[in-house]
Amino acid sequence: MQVSLPAQPSQLMVVNTWHNDAIGIYVLREANPKGVGLFSFRPMSRRMNFFKDGTSIVKYLSFIALLFASPAWALDYSKIVSPFEEPDSKPNLVRPNMLPDGEVLSLGEDKGEAWLSHPTERYAHGVLGDAIEAGGITYSQGTKSLVLNRLSVFEDRKLRMADLDGDGTTELIVVKSYLDQGAAIAAIGLVDGVPQIIAETDPIGLSNRWLNPVGVADFDGDGKVEVAAVITPHIGGTLKLYGFKEGKFFLKYAQEGFSNHAYGSRELGMSAIGDVNMDGIPELFIPDENRRDIRVVSFKGNAFQQLTRIKGSGPITGPLEFVPGKRPQLTYSLKSNERVTITFTP
Fold this sequence. Notes:
This protein is mainly beta.
């Protein structure tokens, strides 16, 4: 799918989209056609079903005609890797006392690793597919473990690194859930070499209420980073951005109508960050509350703006991956196992 992203969001256009249920072909033209783009989404193992439908044959032949009639065309079978995925996050490693489905985070050269540990069943929410959550965080090199009391857990699968206050010291960001008050965002730092929770957002306020982080960046262009998360993504999700000042989180922005998680799924990456209009300030790509459309939103200049809404054809279940460039791309998976590619044009 090809999306034009002009200066005025109201002028955004998506035109001539074809989708074949057998192998998934999209043929696209811009308002001023410069060519045809082909993206094949379905696994090749399903290709044999293609010719069982006469309509599919017509679409296929039409596509071939368009393809060779166009002066500019491209086939893109390249593997797209998200630049925003934690490069040092290792999901398939096993460490002592580790959360069964957790990921190992490299803390940098000569700084060792950290991972969610001390598995516990004291919080039977099961939002990530089972009732086993982490009761602590373990470090590999000379640092004591951080262990929570019995009133809370880390309801997460991975740790995220961020320098919240710009002092050059990295904090860890993780979802902490209270048994009676639900989830909060927690920042972990070292105090005299001992890991401690140095700041938390207010918990949601009810048990079995969860949030899913989107990422950390300077989303409004004020020179300071914000932590973005979707609060209660399963029941009317709200996108919230938290600033960090004098050792405390504070709420800066809140907008309703988002979801970046399916209940029971272990997939945490159903949202992405990227500078799609190349203005130096990243935008957020987050599904709507039904996880069918993708909302591309900005907080530039301290004001919320939806740049576009990309209409979808089915529930989003897989990770969103943003690839920067002159023609940025966004890819994601649907419940039907299709992998969709969106190309943005100036």
